[in-house]
Amino acid sequence: MADYDVIVVGGGISGLMSAMTLSKHGKKVLVLEKRSYVGGNCNSYDVDGFQVDTGVHAITHLRVGPLRRLIDTYFDYSPMFLDHGSYHVRTPNGLSKIPFNLKAFARFDVLPKMDRLLLSQAITKAFTQSTLGSDLSNQSVYDYLPSGLSEDSLDFINAMSYSLSGKSMYETSVHRMLTGSSYMRDSVPENFFEDEEIAKSYVALLANHLTMSQLKGHLSILSRLANNNTGYSQAYPRKGLKGFLNAVLFSMNDSVQIKTSSRVTGINTREGAVKEVVTPDGTYPADVVVFTGFAKDLPALTDNLPSSYIQDIGRIVQTHSMTIWLGLDTKLPEFDYTGSEVWFKRRAFWAMPISNYDKSLAPPGKQLVGFTFIVDESVQLSVDRKRMYNTILTALPGIKDHIEMTHYQYTIPEKASVTIDGFFADTRTPITNLYLAGTDTDSRSMGVTRAGYSVLELLKVLREDHHIE
Ligand SMILES: Cc1cc2nc3c(=O)[nH]c(=O)nc-3n(C[C@H](O)[C@H](O)[C@H](O)COP(=O)(O)OP(=O)(O)OC[C@H]3O[C@@H](n4cnc5c(N)ncnc54)[C@H](O)[C@@H]3O)c2cc1C
Predict the structure, then answer these.
(1) Residues 205 and 245 in one domain
(2) Are 305 and 437 members of one domain?
(3) Is 57 close to ligand 1, i.e. is its CB under 6 Å away?
(4) Whose CA is closest to atom 5 on ligand 1?
(5) Pocket lining: 355 vs ligand 1, CB cutoff 6 Å
(6) Is the CB of 42 inside a 6 Å radius of any atom of ligand 1?
(7) Closest-lying ligand 1 atom to the alpha carbon of residue 449
(8) Residues 304 and 428 in one domain
(9) Is 404 exposed, middle or buried (0-12, 13-18, 19+ CB in 10 A)?
């Protein structure tokens, strides 16, 4: 007889939200975390008086979405969020706001005018095809682009692809660009048809592709979108990323026990079902196991997985990221904003001056900025790290004399990247009562929000399998 109703392997945000929600369904839960601390990639810690997060984070879909559902249904302590602010693109000429509708895009003079027109048409075409049911998930962004774009435009699109899928425009699908970016969601502004140039090209394009009744249907979708004033609903958690982590921990019932420094080395089975979980310090009998480590690791932990399943999860694609945190000895005018910025020339980064949200994250009068890069796997990490650092100095020459703290984080941001050939595992596994949760089990959205989707899916499946009411 097991001491716990459910054993959760992994104390990252997916594992902790799984444990917390299951405790609210009356379950006795044991969380086994291999590290000496919980939170995984959803964490914050102190470096020389600055509070850094594990990577630069903006949490998405907070007004309507999986985290909102989980917070409203299960959290006793609601995390506090601070509005994300604006998305910028930095060029040698300074900051420009990233356009989130076609009209603003038409005026986005960071890119050449002709490119903007060509891209507006491509976006409109993709949007049209997608709303009419075409599957664009196997088509790469690069293959979809019109020919003749400038190098700057290609670098910009590449940077956007990396930020949405963790991979380049050659591996990112058009579908991912459409669904992953709020850009498409808000791409038809209320005054869309006031911009004659774009409206004309759009209507001409539609006329070539649609029958009258399809056109009517499509326009009604557009007008719905046009009036859909969702905003971004993106935010930074108050007190840093650990503010969100703490809200999950404080919301747990007493029926959850967490053991840190407990690496799970085996999940044993009996007659095709879960039997026990093995750690170096002991073996725990188990009726139900929720595994939230890398699904790719499962074959090393348990026997009896069919070879086709092992092959499939071997196709999960991952990306490595490097975040460079810089603690600055003063507040610089370059970072006089709340929000984030993208540098896209050749080597892309995504940066956030997080102490602008909450000044307690830096010592008085100082500033904390994080720069996240996707690691170039084709060169040595030490070489790539120098290149990243130099990219920061190229983009922001004024920063050099003000750096008093430098901190590097090498991480895997999500357990699976959404690429054309990439694979996502199901919540159910071939082993009875062994379930998966985490960012390699759901391709919707990204990061903590995707973790939220995976936990909702887990609860649905556990309900279907009669483990919870
Ligand atoms: C640079 C960077 C930028 C990001 N930006 C954003 C963003 O802007 N917005 C956003 O929403 N998200 C963002 N994320 C992603 C987000 O942080 C993660 O998706 C989320 O924290 C993943 O949670 P998880 O629990 O699924 O995985 P993890 O955090 O990886 O947790 C898994 C846990 O399982 C443990 N574990 C694994 N194997 C075992 C084992 N055998 N035994 C015991 N324990 C085990 C690990 O130690 C770990 O603690 C970013 C992440 C990074 C690194």
Answers:
(1) no
(2) yes
(3) yes
(4) 57
(5) no
(6) yes
(7) 11
(8) yes
(9) middle
What is each CA distance from 341 to 163, 243, 256, 336, 369, in whole angstroms? 11, 23, 40, 12, 11
Q: Strand, helix or coil at 277? A: strand
pLDDT at 81 (0 to 100): 94
Q: Kindly report, residue by residue over 118-151, the tens digit of the pLDDT.
A: 998 898 888 888 878 888 888 999 999 999 999 9
Q: Both tokens of residue 276? A: 């026990």
Q: Which residue stretches of 107-211 are H helix?
A: 113-131, 141-144, 151-165, 174-180, 182-185, 196-209
Residue at token pair 């009875």: 432
- If one residue of 21, 36, 52, 57 were mutated to test the ligand 1 pocket, choosing by the most ligand atoms within 8 A of its CB, it would be 57
Query: In terms of domains, do 212 and 250 share one?
Result: no
pLDDT in tens, 65-122: 999 999 999 999 999 999 999 999 999 999 999 887 777 888 899 999 999 999 988 9
Q: Rounded to an integer, what distance in angstroms lies between the CA atom of residue 93 and that of residue 113?
A: 17
Q: Is residue 65 lining ligand 1, measured as CB closer than 6 Å?
A: no
Kindly state whether residues 118 and 179 are assigned to the same domain.
yes
Residue 372 φ/ψ, nearest 5 degrees: -105, 130
Report the separation in Å between the CA atom of 64 and the middle of ligand 1, taken as the mean of its atom positions: 22
* pLDDT at residue 212 tops 70: no
Query: What atom of ligand 1 comes closest to residue 264's alpha carbon?
Result: 42
User: C-alpha distances in angstroms, 340 versus 96, 162, 193, 315, 368?
Assistant: 11, 15, 30, 32, 13
- Ligand 1 atom with minimal separation from the 14 CA: 25
